Amino acid sequence: MIRILGVDPGSQLTGYGIIETQANRLVCVHSGCIRIKLSDLAGRLLQIYTALGEITDEFKPHEVAVESVFVHRNVESALKLGQARGAAITSVAMRGLPVIEYTPSTIKKTVAGRGNATKRQVQHMVKALLNLPGKQQADAADALAVAICHANSRGALRNSGQLAVRRGGRWRLKGLP
């Protein structure tokens, strides 16, 4: 069993989703959103860092997958997104967890079968793949999609030599403790 934390970073809402691989199926452990309440950037980044640290400490994932930055038309928005990603990655990396990044199109293609799938299609597939009741909040569903993408890509990473076995039989990214 591998527990994966998926993160959909944002400067106002950061989605997170934790799944487990159990035999040949994926199970949702927990998901939600970190709602950023502060107006100053430093405070927002600290809130993301702290909240993801608490989530990581509580749910103890083995690996973390994060959506990579995509090009925005608004440069300021792209910079804020990049800073939010940095806070999220630093929070989990400080706990010794490997972090793997996926592009939005890779996530969509893995989960919905098309790299240009709509948010609605991704949400529908996340609900179906994890057998979730009701509707998920959009950012939480996106984070679960990131985790699903990583769960489905682990074999390829392992075969390419980017993941290496460590004590206890867990797979880790090479070069990390």
Q: Please, could you describe this protein's structure?
A:
By secondary structure, this protein is of the alpha/beta class. It has a single domain, classed as Nucleotidyltransferase, domain 5. Helix content is 46%, strand content 24%. It has a five-stranded mixed sheet. A two-stranded antiparallel sheet has the order 6-7. A hairpin with a 2-residue loop joins strand 2 and strand 3. Helix 1 runs parallel beside helix 2 (75-93) and helix 3 crosses helix 5 (138-159). 36% of the residues are buried. Residues 164-172 have low confidence and may be disordered.
In the CATH hierarchy, the architecture is: 2-Layer Sandwich
The radius of gyration is 15 Å
User: Could you say how many structural domains there are in total?
Assistant: 1
Number of strands: 7
- What's the SSE pattern? EEEHEHEHHHEE
Shape: globular
Strand order of the largest sheet: 3-2-1-4-5
- Note poorly predicted spans: 164-172
Oligomer: single chain
Alpha-carbon distance between the two ends: 20 Å
Helix/sheet category: alpha/beta
Average pLDDT, rounded to a whole number, is 86
What share of residues are in beta strands?
A: 15-25%
> Remind me, CATH topology?
Nucleotidyltransferase, domain 5
Q: Topology of this protein?
A:
Layout: E1 2-8, E2 13-22, E3 25-35, H1 41-59, E4 63-67, H2 75-93, E5 99-102, H3 104-112, H4 119-130, H5 138-159, E6 163-165, E7 171-173
Parallel strand pairs: 1-4, 4-5
Antiparallel strand pairs: 1-2, 2-3, 6-7
